[in-house]
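A brief tutorial aside. Many learners find it easier to grasp structure tokens once they have seen a single protein encoded end to end. The record that follows does exactly this for RNA polymerase sigma factor. Read the sequence first, then the structure, and try to relate runs of similar tokens to stretches of the chain.
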Amino acid sequence: MISVASSPSSTGLSDPASELITALSALPAGHPSRADLRDRAIEAWLPLARHLANRYSGRGEPVDDLCQVAVMGLIKAVDRFDAERGVDFAGFAIPTIVGELKRHFRDRTWSIRVPRRLQELRLAITAANSTLTHTLGRSPTVADIAAHLGVSEEDVLEGLEGARAYTATSLSVPAGDDSIATLGDTLGGEDAGFEIAELRVALGPALASLDEREQKIISLRFYGNLTQSEIAQQIGISQMHVSRLLTRALAKLRKQIDAA
């Protein structure tokens, strides 16, 4: 991997850089000189990648990371360039590198996935805010940004709201200035009461599907808290018979509730 740090600080590119690309494009795949010529061509065009990366600095991403992304775009441009199409390399490489940088912001830097339109709007608002702050000498209003971008104020507000998904607060941070509890501690858990409520709703119709004796056994066992022996004495059957009826009744209830 060629280090971005080795690229010249100047963004001006000499004719030899273009000549390297032309020579590389003329070599057939598998030519013994192609790998070395490819590395030299990438090295020669690194100032362009750095220049384009710097245009996206100040948007929450480290410049070094942006430079690496731009270099990846440059490598793709070098590998895909075809001189026979009649387009010079710079005209092909710039949109390729810029596309890679925009894709990085769109896909890698958002804490929560939001629609691509809002992601791109957020980037446009950020750039407009920087430009207008410089030209107006003050922080721009929503109306200023909307007029600059040619969109409605509602679109700007929607983009600003979507920008809140760009970063997320760690659940490990304190919940308050003097609190030892974290934000994670304030999150709610599952409430078993909801599940119980749903079961109670389903239980009524399920009980109605049992015959009269089965309903009585269920009622005595789970509402009256009687043992199987006590139920047997009250109904006048054996404890073993109570056990079989109870098992059968519970199986019916389970089937009815699962089907609900």
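Self-check: The chain has three domains: 1-109, 112-168, 194-259. If you spotted this yourself, you are ready for the next section.
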